[in-house]
């Protein structure tokens, strides 16, 4: 088979990411960095900063970050033989230049210390672009606190607010006392975090990444025997991925949601994906100002079918339901480090639904009672000589998004297979979804609008996922397309009448200040109004 790397997935944009990690506080951070590097071709890494935390109070270890990145440099050439030419992996040298240290002191004590190197680099990364900066938090956040404090002290209130509006912080749980300080001091900052009693880490959604408790979740792929066989291999994995002690990679969900797989959509964390699902603590109708909507907390997925066939509901389920997909994909990438031979490994398929490709969702405006046809006939894999040689198709109703299921609505979405090309996924859907259909082409019957007799809520928009599984290699590799069925109705909230059709549209509409959108009048007092996707933005005046 002739290899054509141009047939592999490519990305219109790469999210700008800055990592804060208490590496060597426990083995999980080193593990997370190994995984991150195997996906670093999908990211624009702006900094990797060693920090303190409640487990590592008086030291930081940037040398461990450099050790792992140096080992990555030994396999980066192999990795680049398995990705699109426009999405090559960064060099080890470029990543090493981004390694810094935050303050070597615990929590809020750092606010009395000089501005650390890590805080300087973080602030520079924030100010160098009008695009969002995603802070992937694996430890304490006093480096971020230092940067925000310095920003407030050296900028006008309006300019500081403008810079803070670009932050997207994902901290699995608070690991020092500056997380709560940031949210109280700067409530306009977009902040995802599992909030629970101090040191009650067992309550966080992120435990779904590695939990082995309960009969519903299969723990095989997060324990040392499986990791020894599939991850600790070759001159990269064997040198860098430590043994599991407390739990595998608890911090990893903070960047899993940014992997460009077509499932997660970084402008809507409440839509769910490999990194879990989080929602605002109160509904949009109750907002009095934008700061009410900028903190995102644990959401539940309902009716997840476990490996034991029983039904489970909870916030950890929003992550562990994707475990097979996440771990299989990781193992497939580790295999890339072993060989520069394209045909010795599997690769992500390119998903096409009704001619729509790429990782952005397909949004369909629909009327109650109508029928929509969804066809994936244009989907292909660079590993196959024929379109369906190794591909399986599963259409899924993700009813938890927008509360389609949890509100107790009456109507059900029906998915009907329309062709004879029924996929063989060897066990079917692995994410525990009760409503799914295996076929290349389906018919969707759009439910009638209904009003809940008690709450008055009207049937919300609903999401269909297409999961395409490529089984050409040793490990199945899954990619997705999200299709949003958006009802055409006059009573829809104003903020939902215009849904961005792409990530770049969302940036233009809500996230950043640039020439393509109305300007904020910074000569006037800065107020906040709700918006659809991150909870608050400055009121705008037409230029």
Automatic annotation (TrEMBL):
<dbReference type="Pfam" id="PF07632">
    <property type="entry name" value="Sde182_NH-like"/>
</dbReference>
<dbReference type="InterPro" id="IPR036452">
    <property type="entry name" value="Ribo_hydro-like"/>
</dbReference>
<dbReference type="InterPro" id="IPR011483">
    <property type="entry name" value="Sde182_NH-like"/>
</dbReference>
<protein>
    <recommendedName>
        <fullName>Cellulose-binding Sde182 nucleoside hydrolase-like domain-containing protein</fullName>
    </recommendedName>
</protein>
<dbReference type="InterPro" id="IPR013783">
    <property type="entry name" value="Ig-like_fold"/>
</dbReference>
<feature type="domain" description="Cellulose-binding Sde182 nucleoside hydrolase-like">
    <location>
        <begin position="16"/>
        <end position="278"/>
    </location>
</feature>
<dbReference type="GO" id="GO:0016799">
    <property type="term" value="F:hydrolase activity, hydrolyzing N-glycosyl compounds"/>
</dbReference>
